[in-house]
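TOKENISED FOLD:
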Amino acid sequence: MREAIGGTWLFQIVIVFVLLFAGYICLSINYSRAYKVKNEVVDIIERRGTLDYYALASINQYLNDAGYYSIGTCPSDMSAYKAKLVDPTDTEYISGSMTDQGNYCISKVLVNGEDKTNGGISKVYYKVRVFFKFDLPIFGDIFSFKLDGETEQLINK
């Protein structure tokens, strides 16, 4: 009887370590996926040179193809966007004046303020934020993480 009880404790310890290892693997996979999404959003904005309808359509198409559905809260200085297909006439969506919940957040930052230094050319860069969650089926969302990134300096269009 004593060996059976000792074996039960050992079995429980092994199960705990297997669950911890599986949780770590899930967290690593979600983090790398969110990091890849953030890098692709930054690359799309840099390729377009600005944040316009075509950049938003490319970003949303990529997010829909990648199956990215994480939602988070954007700070007040960033605009929240949902990964949906955008109508070119929807100026409210393109300007980002939506709720503070979205799949990703973007803000435009002027490098030199409003003055046009550097030979009359003003430059901007875009801050990008994406989210990922550590979600377990029984417990729900345990942790919510955010990833921030920036584009290189672009000419203000």
About this structure: The first helix runs from residue 2 to 48. Helices lie at 2-48, 53-66, 91-95, 117-120.
